[in-house]
Structures are given as C-alpha cells and as structure tokens.
Specification:
Layout: H1 8-34, H2 38-62, H3 70-83, H4 85-98, H5 104-109, H6 113-129, H7 134-137, H8 139-164, H9 167-195, H10 202-226, H11 230-255, H12 260-289
C-alpha cells in the first residue's frame, strides 16, 4: 500500500493520528522512567510500546516522520505527577475519545486499520485498569471525610451565622466543632476498618478520612476569618463547598470511571439542603430564645 493511494484529507487524518500516538508514547515513556512503583512503571512502558507501534503503523502509510506535541507531553506528565498516574492518563484518554477520528474511509483502503486500532485500544484499557495507586484504594475514606464535613459543617455554619450574626464567633464555634468532629470521624473510621472485612489499612483509612475532614473544615471556615459580614462569609463558604464537591467528583469520575453528574447532584443536594434547613433552624432559635450577641 503506497501513500499515493490515499487522498490528501486521508493523509492529514493519518498524520494527526501519528502525532497523537508519538505524543502519547513520550508521555507514557517519560512517566515510566519517573515513578517508583516498578509494576506501574512496567505497565506504562508496555503501553508506550503500543503507542510506538501505532505510530510506526501509520508512518508506514504516510512515509513521514512526525514530532510529538511537546506542550501536551509537558501538561499531562505534570498532571499525572501531581494528581496521580491513573487520573492523568484517564483524563488524557477521555480527551482522545472526544476527538476520536473516523477511520471509515481510510479502512476501505487499509482494511486492517479498524481491527488493529480496536485491539490495541482494548489492550491499553486493560493495562490502565491494572495500575495501582494507594490513594485510589482509600477513595471511600476520603468520601466519608469530605461528605460528612460538607454536610455537618455547612449546616452548622449556616445555623450559627443567623443565630450569632458575628463572623468571628461563627468561626470560633465552627472551628471547635470541625476539629472535634474530624478527630471523631478519624477514630470511627479506624475502628470500622480494623473490625471490618476490608483489606484497607485501618491507620491509613483513618488518616485519609481525618485529613479530608480537616481540609474541608479549613476551606469552609476561612471566609469567616477574612470577611466581616456574616452573610458574605456564608455565601463564600457555600461557594467553597460547591467547588469542593465539583472538583472532587470530577476527579473521582475520571480516575474511577464513575458517572459525574449524578454523583455531583447527589452530594450538592444533600449539602445545600442541610445548609438551608440549618439556616432556618438558626433563625427560629434566635427568635424563640431571644439570643442576642
């Protein structure tokens, strides 16, 4: 099969595919050389070899060398290093799925295209599924810490905001409540993991839960330490809560191949619903108890 049998648009499509393949080869190869987990490094090296075979296959039909997208190599290498190999790779793969090229016309001239690409892609997905990262094993513990902190603390801060109407007092009460609750949640997760059937390390489970809780406490309390008006503080706190829910659910949906929209809406509805209810309770308590600060 010679390049002359392919039309100019087909050549351009294949050259684009070539660039993607050689770019991903460099990403996988670079990551395989940097990570310490040898099993993961070996898997990434195998995937890199697959990408190089893709590139060589296309090169055989274009007869041209193509340079990688250096910015993409830099971007996804550091995303993977900062946020985890699995997240970085799957985020990159999702981008490729959205920009998937239709090889229908090309397959009429190069019959083996569909089969080769399909088999190689299936192989890569299986290999990616074999990657192991500790923090993904403890997503359940992180969810427990984040969700409990978001629900409990947004509700507490909303109720205290109207009951006390003083940003510093709300911050003080919220901080005490948050720290005590984070220690309680960490201890409960430790006991649950220790006496449960899970193979998770009890200490690590408790640390992930407690850390997630503390992180959320800091994010939600900070506005009350910066601004004076308690309603402004509450507004920024609720915005922070939504942002945490959004970012966390996006991360998990990519890294664990879970649906994003339904999980986000569920967590958002519960947190904001509790906040609204608690705000109303704070208003009623202030009126009926005649609390003035």
């Amino acid at each position: 099969m010679t390049p002359q049998q392919l039309t100019a648009p087909m050549i351009q499509t294949i050259l684009k595919a070539q660039k993607n393949e050689i770019t991903e080869f460099h990403i996988y190869k670079k990551l395989s050389r940097k990570i310490k987990n040898r099993e993961n490094a070996d898997i990434l090296s195998v995937i890199a070899d697959d990408e190089l075979r893709h590139y060589t296959f296309w090169k055989g039909h274009t007869g041209k060398e193509v340079s990688p997208n250096r910015f993409k190599v830099f971007k996804f290498f550091w995303i993977a290093r900062l946020f985890g190999i699995t997240f970085g790779i799957k985020l990159m793969e999702k981008g490729e799925e959205q920009a998937q090229v239709n090889y229908g016309e090309i397959a009429k001239i190069i019959p083996e295209v569909d089969e080769i690409i399909r088999d190689e892609d299936d192989h890569e997905k299986k290999l990616i599924g074999m990657l192991e990262e500790e923090h993904l094993k403890y997503v359940g513990s992180v969810v427990l810490g984040l969700n409990d902190a978001l629900v409990e603390l947004t509700g507490t801060l909303a109720g205290l905001s109207f009951a006390l109407q003083n940003a510093r007092l709300v911050a003080l009460a919220g901080l005490i409540t948050g720290i005590a609750a984070s220690l309680s949640m960490a201890a409960s997760e430790f006991l649950s993991a220790r006496h449960g059937e899970s193979d998770e390390n009890p200490l690590r489970s408790s640390l992930y839960t407690g850390s997630a809780y503390i992180f959320t406490v800091v994010a939600l309390i900070t506005p009350f330490l910066i601004f004076q008006n308690y309603l402004v503080c509450l507004g920024v706190t609720l915005f922070n809560a939504v942002l945490i829910i959004l970012i966390f659910n996006f991360y998990v949906s990519v890294a664990k191949d879970l649906p994003f929209k339904s999980r986000f809406l569920e967590m958002f509805s519960i947190s904001m619903g509790v906040a609204a209810l608690s705000f109303g309770i704070g208003w009623l308590i202030r009126i009926f108890l005649g609390v003035e600060v």
